[in-house]
């Protein structure tokens, strides 16, 4: 099994901003033409499991601050707003993604989401971007760490920058929810384990192959180590 500094999958264009800028440009055109919000990363079922976990968790109040790290089309935040959550922030390094997210929120008459173009994996990201200069009760990552891990080059230092930025977004009672299809639970625990402890996990569909059981998607909740 790969360690925290190694990946056992190939790099991909999914790890480049050029891919996402192009994707969101097309999705924005489709949204304006036919109202299609674009792809829900990992599917609607995965998103619903995250939303339900947040809603069922008594630690999280409706006015607690929640940030979506790599929000893309922003549908997770729109759904949170429609469930009564009011202190919402979305960031993405693709300006096209943020433009799409703002358009979708406006079409749903959602006005309580703050959006910003920001880069999680640059040096001093917490000082360079307004939204990354605050702490949050809940930090959600639905595929962003996966995308960073797919970068064709420099993915290891990029993941370390991600970790550095994430730590500064959280306090002792914050919750970090991460969903991945590239990394197993053990690998995520190993990578984040230097600074975070596993707090909970969201049950996801499993499969059996060759006598072993696995999951196509892993959703975990971490807290900072005390």
Automatic annotation (TrEMBL):
Gene Ontology annotations for the cellular component aspect, listed alphabetically: cytoplasm
Annotated localization = Cytoplasm
Biological process terms in GO annotation: methylation
Q: Would the keyword S-adenosyl-L-methionine be found if you checked this record's keyword annotation?
A: yes
Write down the top EC class of this protein.
Answer: transferase
Matching entries from InterPro entries are given as: Efm4/METTL10, Methyltranfer_dom, SAM-dependent_MTases_sf
User: CDD domains attached here?
Assistant: AdoMet_MTases
Q: Please state the protein's primary subcellular location.
A: cytoplasm
Instruction: Give an example GO molecular function.
Output: protein-lysine N-methyltransferase activity
Keyword S-adenosyl-L-methionine set for record: yes
Q: Which intervals hold domain Methyltransferase?
A: 61-190
Q: Which UniProt keywords are given for this protein, alphabetically ordered?
A: Cytoplasm, Methyltransferase, S-adenosyl-L-methionine, Transferase
Which Enzyme Commission number(s) are on file for it? 2.1.1.-
Its biological function?
A: S-adenosyl-L-methionine-dependent protein-lysine N-methyltransferase that methylates elongation factor 1-alpha.
Per the record, the similarity remark reads: Belongs to the class I-like SAM-binding methyltransferase superfamily. EFM4 family.
Q: What is this protein called?
A: Protein-lysine N-methyltransferase MCOR_41214
Native organism is: Mytilus coruscus
